[in-house]
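Narrative of activities, Objective 1.

The group set out to show that a structural description can be obtained from nothing but a protein's sequence at a throughput compatible with the screening campaign. Below is one input-output pair from the validation batch, recorded exactly as produced.
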Amino acid sequence: MTIKPKAMETIAAETTTTTPEVISRSFDKTVEGLKESAATATASLEQAQAQLKQGYDRAVKTAEQLAKFHQGNLEAMIKASQIFATGLQDISKHVAENAKATLEESVSTFRALTTVKSVKEALELQTSFAKASIEKAMSEGSKLTETSLKLAEQAYAPLTARVNAAVETFTTRN
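Output recorded for this entry:
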């Protein structure tokens, strides 16, 4: 098959006139596709950035709430320690006062024993002293136990309040 020169010129003319148009349209489509891809990528990145910011804001808020909660725990611990220290100091003073009174009673009884005239009188004095000492020890022991229990209750009150707050906080979040 042979091509005639005139037909060749027509094919060449058509090819040269259509090739720039085809290239231009193809280029325009490529640019348009790139613009669409860039717009989609930009929108996706903006959405990801917004989600990241939202997550960051939630994390910061949670950290602030956690710090505030732990600050409350620390304050409760300090308050409980202060109550306990004050109560322990009061109990120690009371025990020291009782020990001093017991010592004074012992000295008084010993002095009285040095002036007795008979063994029977000494035994009565010693028995009376022993009975009073035992009764006082039992009474003071009961008072000390009661005071200690009250102190423990008072000292644990701020901590109990924090535990209740924690339970309330964490059960309402879920």
